[in-house]
Specification:
This protein is of the alpha+beta class. The chain has helices at residues 4-11, 17-35, 39-54, 57-60, 71-81, 85-105, 117-188, 192-198, 246-266, 272-287, 382-391, 397-412; strands spanning 202-207, 215-221, 234-242, 297-306, 311-317, 321-325, 328-332, 339-340, 351-354, 360-364, 372-373, 378-379, 421-427. Helix 3 (39-54) runs antiparallel to helix 5.
Length: 428
């Protein structure tokens, strides 16, 4: 309307009245769309409304008034209105195409208004001035938005740097706390001297997923004399896998480790199955003090080995005992429930095995076989683990430890370690 009305007044052309009415209707629809807050729709409507409003002007006014240049400011609108890059490019292309279509077709239509060369020159100057003013206004507005955006970005960068510093400080403090927790957890594990003294030909492959672990290995030498019909030639050892890993797993491991120690040292229990039952009772008792329904616990394989007679007693919670003898694996399965609160809690079975010279005992958590890796990113699996142990059976225990480490790291590759790993091997 702002464009057509001056022409109507100057030329007193009644033919322009319909175009003025169209302009008014376009303006009314635009106000309604904004009123109902359809802002995304409003952007598209506004863009096309500008084109619809201006396009008839190209054919109303005679050639030479330079009114086609009014399309150029509209070509800048997509960059301002649309955040979607492709939508902006499509709309810009549309305006450019319309510009060249108008240049090549306007002479085919007779102008409604007749104007003298002086009037055309006057309107040419007016339209060029309007085109420059609109272009400058759009560019200036766009530049203002960019400046405001840059100020916001600078403020956010300052806040991000401050937040980053705080996070790094907190991370350092947390890491220091966890590292100290690792020292505490390592203190409750059997010392290398104790392992080497009683399990002379053995290895322990222990590789936590995080700094601290839910897996742990446990060992206890039965004293002499003790009144339990057992002497210092018997050693208890276990590979345990507690619920979770990292900090939660480590907290559960402390409870379970303490329960194992209590069962043997305080209650004097020496049979593996009875140790597991008492440990389960103590773990449930510890967690029952919480108002939460805690069912955390551990899977483990527990062995009692007489170093003179080579009699082995075993009891397991979900985890088995493997004995490699003459190139074969003899498997003794544990109970199908963990040490902790569960729906069914039957007694643990106690198994006795008479070992032979050169037998190798393996007990382990599930971290090794559950690791993803290889060319297809699949789990290592139990069958492959058995093949690996059989293939390295002739190696020394130290060589077997290195083979297990290398195979695990090669299989894992660049993938993340999914769980804690604990494997114990003992050769008779």
């Amino acid at each position: 309307m702002v464009i057509y009305l001056p022409i109507e007044i100057i030329f007193n052309s009644v033919e322009l009245v319909p175009y003025i009415l169209i302009e008014l209707s376009i303006l009314a629809v635009s106000l309604y769309i904004n009123h109902i807050k359809w802002f995304n729709c409003s952007k598209i409507y506004f863009f096309f409304a500008c084109i619809i409003s201006i396009l008839p002007m190209m054919y109303i006014v005679p050639v030479g008034a330079a009114h086609e240049f009014l399309l150029l400011p509209i070509a800048l609108l997509p960059a301002l209105l649309f955040h979607n890059r492709w939508l902006g490019v499509i709309m810009f292309t549309l305006v450019v195409v319309l510009f060249f279509v108008v240049l090549n077709t306007r002479e085919m239509v007779d102008a409604i208004i007749e104007a003298t060369p002086e009037q055309l020159a006057f309107f040419r100057n007016i339209y060029l001035a309007v085109a420059f003013i609109l272009t400058f206004t759009i560019a200036f507005y766009f530049r203002t938005i960019v400046n405001d955006f840059e100020k916001i970005i600078k403020k956010k960068n300052v806040l991000l740097k401050e937040t980053k510093s705080e996070i790094e400080l907190q991370h350092t403090e947390i890491k220091a706390s966890i590292s100290y927790a690792k020292r505490i957890q390592e203190a409750i594990l059997p010392s290398n001297n104790l392992v080497e003294k009683y399990l002379i030909d053995s290895f322990i492959y222990y590789q936590p997923k995080d700094i601290i672990a839910g897996d742990f290995y446990w060992m206890h030498v039965l004293p002499e004399p003790n009144g339990w019909d057992i002497n210092g030639d018997t050693i208890l050892f276990s590979a345990a896998d507690c619920t979770g890993h990292g900090v939660p797993g480590a907290m559960v491991s402390v409870v379970c480790n303490n329960a194992l120690n209590q069962s043997v040292k305080e209650f004097g229990i020496t049979q593996p199955s009875l140790i597991l039952e008492k440990t389960r009772e103590l773990v449930i008792e510890t967690f029952s003090e919480s108002i939460e329904n805690v069912q955390d616990g551990m899977d483990l394989a527990l062995c009692s080995l007489n170093l003179k007679t080579h009699e082995l007693q075993f009891s397991g919670a979900n985890n088995p005992l493997w004995i490699v003898r003459d190139g074969e694996i003899l498997e003794t399965k544990g109970n199908k429930h963990h040490v902790g609160k569960c729906d069914l809690m039957p007694d643990f079975k106690n198994h006795k095995v008479q070992l032979q010279k050169n037998d190798i005992i393996y007990i382990f958590s599930d971290g090794y076989v559950d690791q993803f890796g290889g060319p297809k990113g699949k789990k290592f699996m139990t069958a492959k683990f058995k093949q690996l142990l059989l293939s390295i059976n002739s190696q020394t225990m130290n060589e077997q430890l290195n083979s297990l480490k290398n195979t695990f790291n090669q299989w894992k590759g660049k993938l993340e370690q999914v769980d804690d790993v604990c494997v114990i091997g003992v050769k008779i």
